[in-house]
Design goal:
The protein is α+β, with helices and mostly antiparallel strands. It has six helices and ten strands, in the order αβββαβααββαβββαβ. The chain has a five-stranded antiparallel sheet with strand order 1-2-8-7-6, with no helix packed on it.
Length: 308
């Protein structure tokens, strides 16, 4: 009986401690203020196999940035039209570095206890850096300081910074990748507007579409290019095939590691607009929720990718 009482007392102490974890420390990262928290219940990117399109020739290319301040990941893929009619799409491409919360350098100094069977840090994944095409989603749009996920991530990153064996810089935290995907699923029309031509191909003035900003005469003279990070996509149109190249700029920084993951998300444009209208209100009696996702895949990138 006395042993049972002691166990209950210890569990109560652990429970009380867990409810009073200090997450007020914010390090160097900005504190998000205005976002409505995206919960895990909002993460439901179900892709129905759409026979109208086919994605082929997915490849990755790592190269030095012309400004000498970072590296660029180019993601290439083709979208084929399996019909004769033109199809309008919205496309998102997420490239990011994701690791678990295990600090290998610290573990060399302070090994993990052998008597513990499970290591929770191995299953806690952190987004270290992310670049999105066509444009970045700012953190304040998808979480805030009252979000339990933000508090949990902030606690973990502060613990890593304050660890006894930590001897390196640990950068800012980003929201988990599923929050970015959930945002894109909720607002699909903010993605790249892409056309997929059918038997009637594009006119000569619509063969290429890009957000590339040519360097100004001053930039050419000084060799200091200011808009390289802003160039996030290049699209080539042909008959029944669209070639997409997305560009993800990773600047050199204290905790620099190259991207190791990419996710591609493609929406039917017409259904995406209908979905956003439907999501802004209550479902009518008998109304079926609209699913605009046509393609959703995750790709692992070898960080030893040859650079050129």
């Amino acid at each position: 009986m006395r042993i049972i009482f002691v166990i209950i007392f210890l569990l109560l102490q652990i429970s009380l401690f867990s409810q009073n974890i200090n997450t007020s420390g914010n390090g160097n990262q900005p504190t998000p203020q205005n976002a409505d928290a995206i919960k895990i219940q909002n993460f439901n990117p179900v892709s129905i196999e759409d026979p109208r399109i086919e994605i082929t020739d997915i490849s990755f290319d790592r190269k030095y940035s012309p400004d000498g301040r970072g590296e660029i990941l180019d993601v290439y893929f083709n979208i084929w039209n399996q019909t004769s009619e033109k199809i309008d799409l919205f496309v998102w491409v997420f490239s990011y570095e994701e690791t678990n919360a295990v600090d290998t350098e610290e573990r060399k100094i302070v090994p993990y206890p052998r008597w513990r069977v499970k290591d929770p840090d191995k299953k806690f994944f952190i987004t270290r850096f992310i670049k999105i095409s066509p444009k970045d989603i700012t953190a304040d749009k998808i979480w805030n300081e009252n979000d339990p996920d933000y508090k949990n991530y902030n606690y973990v990153i502060q613990r890593m910074r304050n660890a006894v064996g930590n001897m390196k810089y640990i950068g800012n935290i980003y929201p988990p990748i599923w929050k970015y995907i959930s945002y894109a699923v909720r607002f699909p029309t903010q993605g790249m507007a892409v056309h997929l031509y059918g038997d009637q191909g594009p006119t000569l003035d619509k063969l290429l579409y890009t957000n590339y900003i040519p360097p100004s005469p001053e930039e050419k003279r000084t060799k200091i290019f200011k808009h390289i990070p802003d160039h996030t996509f290049t699209i080539e149109y042909t008959k029944r095939k669209t070639i997409i190249r997305t560009h993800h700029y990773s600047p050199y920084r204290a905790d620099f590691h190259f991207f190791n993951m990419t996710r591609i998300l493609i929406f039917d444009a017409e259904k995406a607009k209908q979905f956003e209208e439907q999501a802004s209100r209550e479902l009518r009696p008998g109304e079926v929720p609209i699913n605009a996702i046509m393609y959703y895949r995750t790709f692992f990138i070898n960080q030893d990718l040859k650079i050129r």
